[in-house]
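Changelog note: in this version the structure field was regenerated for every chain. One regenerated record is shown below for reference.
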Amino acid sequence: MAQEALAPGTSLGIASVPNLRDAGGYTTADGSMVRRGIAYRANQLNPISPADLKKIADLGLKNDFDLRTAEEREAKPDVLPAGVKNVWLNVLADAKGHSPAEVEKVLSDPKMANQILGGGKASAEFVQTYRDFITLPSANAAFRQLFLSMSKKKELPALYHCTTGKDRTGWASAALLTLLGVPEDKVYEDYLRSNEYILPAYKAFIDRFVAAGGDPEIPVDILGVKAEYLRASFDQVKTQYGSIENYFDKGLGIHRARQQKLRDRFLQANNQ
């Protein structure tokens, strides 16, 4: 795969994992470049075809950071190339709302989904979940371990993922890119590109849901991403910590020197 030729945020074209993308390639405000080939973001790694597993093996991964809940992992355990370490970081372990597995069950009954998630309730739940990414102890512990590991050369290349690769994974990418100095518009652009890869993958499901009487906004609100979701996380960071650096420092316990190690690991001069 000629990854260097791909625009930043572009899917690697692995059909089984449509939202698998290099986290790098972006230019920071000061003109540095986020390195490619050391961190990847993705949706769930199950099912994966043998041919696609070979493509994933070619990435040379050392770690696979799974940000899902126990129910999600049990339903679809990661399929990995030999030698890749699977690390479980349960971001939503402390969450009080509907779990991802519960939402999936509700979606299987369109009429029930209309009652529970219709009228904007699904979007409101996601806005709260994105605030939870900043406030939950389990989220802080998970993101702390993820970013600490990715600051170490021996732990890379690495991949991090959740089920659709857009929410828990989306915040991880947005937080990292922001800390590295990528402009806000590019951070949102990267985040919103999940819609290009995930919604088509669920088109048959969405069509069945709507045909059975489901509100067409519900699956899009749940399976897609909206700028307002990510804004909720950044608003919580600003309210609680004042800056992304303080979030990493006070919220995640990653002090300024270790933050600099992340920058050193991920950033290179644009002409290299």
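Spot check on this record: Residues 121-135 form the longest helix (15 residues). The longest strand covers residues 39-42.
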